[in-house]
Amino acid sequence: MTTLKRVQQWATFARIWHVFDASWQNPFDSAQLLKKYLLGLYKPIYHPMNDCGDHVIVINCSDVALPGEEWKKRVYFHHTGYPGGASWTLAHELHKKDPVLILKKAVYNSMDGNLQRRYTMERLHLFPDANVPAKLMGNVSNQIRQIRPIPKRLDHYTQKEIEEYPKLIDYPKDYILR
Amino acid sequence: MQSISKINLLNLPNIFLRTISFSSKLQLKEVFETREGNSLVIKGVHAESGREPFLLKNVSEACPVCSSGLDIKHTDVLILSQFVRSDGCMLPRRITGLCTKQQKRMSTLVTMAQKAGLMPNLNPPNSKNDPKKRGGWKKYHKYFDETTINVR
Ligand SMILES: [Zn+2]
C-alpha cells in the first residue's frame, strides 16, 4: 500500500468534526441538515450498517429562531408513566429551562428510531453559547453553512449607512417632522 | 425661513397658538416649543429631509415600491425604516404615496420587523429598546414568512 493510498484510506474512515452556528436558524430545518452529517449520509461509503457518522458541534443554541408565534404555540408533551403524569410544556418554557433542548429534540426526532439513534446523538455536541472547550474545538475541520442569513438590526448600522441608503420616498413639503 | 410667534400665554386659549404662522405653511417643518417664563415660543423651522440626493427616480405612473420592482422582506430594515416615524408608527398613505396594496404590505412588514426586534431604536420613548428585555416568549428570536401576507 502506497503512502497516498494509506492516507486516503485513513481520511475516508476518520470521523470528521463539523461546527454549526445555530443563531437565527430554525431548529427543525437545521435538524434535517445536521442529520446528514451525523449519520454520514453524504459519504460515498455510506451504508446503514457502516458506522461512518461525523461529530457535529452546535454553538449558540440559545439563539435559535422559530417562525411567527411558534414560541407560544408549539407544545412538548411528556408523560411520567404514572396516572395523571402527563405534562405539556410550551416551546418558550422549555427553552427557558434548557436552551439546548429544542435543538436536541429536533435532531433526535428527525432520525429514525433504531438502536443506533442514541449512539448517533452522542456525536452531537450542543452548546448554548460560543464557549466550547478547546479540546473539542481543536478537532474541528469544517464549518456547516447556515440555512438562513442572520438579519442585521437597524441600530447596528451606522448613521452614515442609514442616511446614504437609497430612498424610495421623500416627505411631502407640508409634512411636520417627528 | 422661520416663523416665530411670541404670545402671552395668559391672554390666549392654547388652541389658537397653533394657527399663527408668518411664512408659507407648505414646507417641511420641524416644530420647536420653548417656554420662557410666561410666554411660549413656537418655532416652525424649515428642515431638509436629507433624502433628495439618495432618492430613487420614479419615471413611471406606479407608486415608488411598485416601480422599484424590489421584493422587500421583513429583514430589509433600511427600506422599512423609511416608512415609519421616529416612534415606530407607520406613516399614512397620504404621506408615503404608495398604492393601497403596497401600503398594506409595507405596514405588515414593518410590524413583522418590529416583532422580530429588528428596529428597536424606532420605538416610543417609554420602550426599553432591547428585544432581550421583553417578557416571556417575546424575547426569543423569531422570523416571519412573507408569503403569509394576504394582500388582495
Ligand atoms: Zn404600487
Automatic annotation (TrEMBL), chain A:
UniProt GO cellular component terms: mitochondrial large ribosomal subunit
GO molecular-function terms, A-Z: mRNA binding; structural constituent of ribosome
Database matches in Gene3D superfamilies: Ribosomal protein L13
The keyword Ribosomal protein is annotated on this UniProt entry: yes
InterPro entries given in the database record: Ribosomal_uL13 (IPR005822), Ribosomal_uL13_bac-type (IPR005823), Ribosomal_uL13_sf (IPR036899)
One Pfam family named in its UniProt record: Ribosomal_L13
Keywords from the UniProt entry: Ribonucleoprotein, Ribosomal protein
GO biological process: negative regulation of translation; translation
Family: Belongs to the universal ribosomal protein uL13 family.
Protein name (record): 39S ribosomal protein L13, mitochondrial
Source organism per UniProt: Aquatica leii
UniProtKB/TrEMBL annotation, chain B:
Subcellular location as annotated: Mitochondrion
Primary location class: mitochondrion
Gene3D superfamilies: Ribosomal protein S18
This protein's UniProt keywords: Mitochondrion, Ribonucleoprotein, Ribosomal protein, Transit peptide
GO biological process: mitochondrial translation
Superkingdom as given in the UniProt entry: Eukaryota
Disordered as annotated region, ranges: 117-137
A cellular-component GO term for this protein: mitochondrial small ribosomal subunit
GO molecular function: small ribosomal subunit rRNA binding; structural constituent of ribosome
InterPro entries in alphabetical order: Ribosomal_bS18 (IPR001648), Ribosomal_bS18_sf (IPR036870)
Similarity remark: Belongs to the bacterial ribosomal protein bS18 family. Mitochondrion-specific ribosomal protein mL66 subfamily.
Record-linked PANTHER family: 30S RIBOSOMAL PROTEIN S18 (PTHR13479), LARGE RIBOSOMAL SUBUNIT PROTEIN ML66 (PTHR13479:SF66)
Protein name: Large ribosomal subunit protein mL66
Species annotation: Aquatica leii
Lineage, opening ranks: Eukaryota, Metazoa, Ecdysozoa, Arthropoda, Hexapoda
